[in-house]
Amino acid sequence: MLKAEGIVPIQIGSGTIRNQLPYPGERVYAGSKFILSGDVQKKMPDLSGWSMADIMKLADLEDLKLVTKGSGFVSDQSIPKGAELKVGRTLTVTLTGEKKSSSEGASHAPSTSSAPDSGTSDKP
């Protein structure tokens, strides 16, 4: 359902989903990441092409210390894809003006939908 609206769901970890960003009821935009945080086996995703806003959501949700270099979209990350995520770890990302493709990327056109609560949508 989210992908059909241009919203990219990213699951960090497995087990029970304990938190999410954006929060239920918040406005989301096509191309933005909808991050779901499980309670075990949390692994770093490939951040290539992620926006600053999405990186900030991930850092906030997973209690990472964020250091950024440049502007634009992520072209390099200090914690490699698949590495274990630990609270308090420093994530340094390099951003460049060009968006690099990732398997989780999309455009940034606005959407009229709101973040779903418990997997439901406010659309009829």
TrEMBL record:
<keyword id="KW-0808">Transferase</keyword>
<feature type="compositionally biased region" description="Polar residues">
    <location>
        <begin position="103"/>
        <end position="124"/>
    </location>
</feature>
<dbReference type="GO" id="GO:0051301">
    <property type="term" value="P:cell division"/>
</dbReference>
<keyword id="KW-0132">Cell division</keyword>
<feature type="region of interest" description="Disordered">
    <location>
        <begin position="96"/>
        <end position="124"/>
    </location>
</feature>
<dbReference type="GO" id="GO:0016757">
    <property type="term" value="F:glycosyltransferase activity"/>
</dbReference>
<protein>
    <submittedName>
        <fullName>Cell division protein FtsI</fullName>
        <ecNumber>2.4.1.129</ecNumber>
    </submittedName>
</protein>
<keyword id="KW-0131">Cell cycle</keyword>
<keyword id="KW-0328">Glycosyltransferase</keyword>
<dbReference type="InterPro" id="IPR005543">
    <property type="entry name" value="PASTA_dom"/>
</dbReference>
<feature type="domain" description="PASTA">
    <location>
        <begin position="39"/>
        <end position="97"/>
    </location>
</feature>
<dbReference type="Pfam" id="PF03793">
    <property type="entry name" value="PASTA"/>
</dbReference>
